[in-house]
Amino acid sequence: MNAQEVRDLSDDELTAKLLDLKKEQFNLRFQRASGQLEKTDRVREVRRDIARIKTAQTERRKDSEAPARTKPAEVKEDKDA
């Protein structure tokens, strides 16, 4: 899964995918610890997919929370000068 595919998913789909990947990561950890893991590269792929999804969720949250700044703040002059 690449970054563009993640951005194309809806919020609900991202949450569901994140939950699935976390479950898979949990199972992969157990398989690695017991020596049953055959595809060791899958651990890395899952970890990076989780990071991509969390990054996309953070970007969306920041975009929705960002206040629209239309005019710059006024500069106050010193009264002593």
Automatic annotation (TrEMBL):
Belongs to the universal ribosomal protein uL29 family. GO terms for molecular function: structural constituent of ribosome. GO terms for biological process: translation. It comes from Parvularcula maris. InterPro entries: Ribosomal_protein_uL29 (IPR050063), Ribosomal_uL29 (IPR001854), Ribosomal_uL29_sf (IPR036049). GO terms for cellular component: cytosolic large ribosomal subunit. SUPFAM superfamilies: Ribosomal protein L29 (L29p). It comes from the Bacteria. Pfam families: Ribosomal_L29 (PF00831). Gene3D superfamilies: 1.10.287.310. This is Large ribosomal subunit protein uL29. The gene is rpmC. Residues 54-81 are annotated as: Disordered. Keywords: Ribonucleoprotein, Ribosomal protein.
